[in-house]
Amino acid sequence: MEDGDKYPLGDKDIPKEGEFRSHGWVKTINSIPGIITLAIAACFIVAVILYLIIQINLNSKVEDKNTNLFKYIIDYFSLNKEEEDKTRPARIIVFLVLATGLVLIVFYNINKMRDRPRISVTLVDNYMSPTIQLCPRLESSIEYAVYTEKINDVFKEETTIDSLPNLTSYDPIYKPDYLTTCYLFNYTSLPRPKKDVGMFYAFIFNQTTYVDVFIGDDKNTDWSLSIPESKGYGDVGSQTILSYGLIFYTETRYIELDKSHIHRGFQCSALTYDLSGFNETRIGIHVPKQVITQVEEPALELADAFGNIGGYISICGLFAFLFGEYGIVTYFSKKGKESDDKGIDGKDAV
C-alpha cells in the first residue's frame, strides 16, 4: 500500500518535489539505473579503445609495420586499394552510409531527449489537503472548525459537533472589500486525506450570512486579493454559501518535468439549503479520494535511445558479417580470386 508520506503525489513513479529523482535530467536517463548503465557503457567503450590501441601497437612491433587505428579499420574491412577486389566500391559506399547513419541517429536521439516533454494523464490517490479561505459577508466568527474522514459520519445520529476533532490553526486576513476578516486554513494545517477514504471539513459561523469559499494551492496563490488568484497553471475554486451548504470539489494537477513542480487546479460545486432560521452558517467541504494528474515526461528516455542506437548498430553488425575480414562476401570474393589465379597459372603452364 502506498504511503502518503513517501508518495505525497499519489504514485511512487512521481518523485516528490525537489528531491534528486525529480530533476529533469535524472528522469531522462532513467534515474539511478540509467546512471549505472551510462557508467558501465563508458567503461566498456574506454576498455575497447584501450584494447584496440594496445593490440595495434603490439602488432606493429611484431610485424615491424607502422599501423594505426585508421589503417587497422581499413584492413579489417578490406578497403585498401592495393588488393584487387570487385566488392571494394560497394564496401566503401555501404561503410560510409552506415557510419554517417550512426552519427545521425545518435545526434537525433540526443536532440530528441532534450525535446518538448510528453504529457501523460493518470488517476492517482489523493494525499494532499487543499488550502481553504472562508470570507463571510458580515462580521462573523467561526464557532466550530472540525473534520472527519468520512462525510457520512456527520449525518449519523450519534455524531455531535463536539465529538469531532477540531481544526485550530488558521490565519486571519482582513480584506477591505469584505469589511470583515477572512479565515485562511493552510494545507499544512489541515489533516490530509487517506487512501480510499478522503476527508471532510466542517465550519460553523455564529450567524446567518453569505460566505465566499475559496479553495486553492497555498504555494502559488495570492490570498490577500478580493478574489484569490493562482500564479501557476491551476485555478482557484470558489463557491458562495448562504446558511447551509456542502461543497464538493474536483482537483487536477499538472506536474512539471524538472523538479516535479506542482500546479493544482480546483473546480467547485455545492448542495445548498436554506436553514436561515438557525441563525448560523454551516459549511462542509468534501475532499476527493483521487485526482486527475497530468505529468510531464521526457520526450525520449535513455533506455529508448539505447534501443534505437542498438538496433542500428545491429544493422552495422550485418555489414561486418558480410564484408568484414571473415565475412561471407569477402570469403567468396577471395575464393573467386583464387580460382581465377589458378586458371591463369594453368594456362601459363600449358
From TrEMBL:
Alphabetized UniProt keyword annotations: Membrane, Transmembrane, Transmembrane helix
Top-rank lineage group of the source organism: Eukaryota
Keyword Transmembrane annotated: yes
TM helices/strands, residue ranges: 32-54, 90-110, 309-332
Protein name: 813_t:CDS:1
Organism: Diversispora eburnea
Lineage of producing organism: Eukaryota, Fungi, Fungi incertae sedis, Mucoromycota, Glomeromycotina
